Amino acid sequence: MGFEWHGARERFDQARLTTLERDAAGRTVAIIDFTLTIRDEGYYAPLLSRRRFPASDTASYVGRGEFLVEEGRWKRLSGEISIQAKGVVRVDSAYRFVLEPLEPARFLPLAAE
Fold first, then answer.
1. Nearest Cα residue to 74 out of 65, 87, 83
2. Tens-place pLDDT, residues 61-110
3. End-to-end Cα, the chain, rounded Å
4. For the CA atoms of 52, 56, 83, 64, what is the dihedral angle to 10 degrees?
5. How far is C-alpha 11 from the chain's CA centre?
6. Is residue 63 part of a domain?
7. CA torsion angle for 23, 32, 74, 35 (degrees, to 10)?
8. pTM of the full predicted structure?
């Protein structure tokens, strides 16, 4: 038996260049702040029934990235991802993270066949 979603979605996406600075190696680093949020409010309806199950969920990411301008790659990305859901399932969780490269990425040439 399947369910059909009926509801409204709100979305907020903001990425803002906060500053440009030089790191210890003299590279230009763009500091970018992110706020991304999506919210759903509505209900699930079984396809073969008139019942309705109210539900809502919100997922968001708030973070900061350090981007190496001349190299075209991320130096560091950190933030928090959170998810809240009510209705058919209940979820309330948040995760903090920091991503940094362990070593510079290597690009391998593609072999022509």
1. 65
2. 999 999 999 999 999 999 999 999 999 889 999 999 999 887 766 666 76
3. 49
4. 150
5. 12
6. yes
7. 150
8. 0.75
| Domain that includes residue 81, residue range | 3-99
Number of compact structural domains in the chain: 1
In a domain, 112, yes or no: no
**How do beta strands 53-68 and 73-86 pair?**
antiparallel
Question: How far from 95 is each of 21, 49, 54, 109, CA to CA, in Å?
Answer: 28, 37, 26, 37
The partner residues of 71 in beta bridges, in order of sequence, read none
Residue that has been written with the tokens 């130096």 in this structure? 75
Query: DSSP assignment of 47-74, as one string?
Result: TT-S--EEEEEEEEEEEEEEEETTTTEE
Total count of residues recorded for the chain: 113
**If you count DSSP H runs as helices and E runs as strands, how many of each does the chain have, helices first?**
0, 5
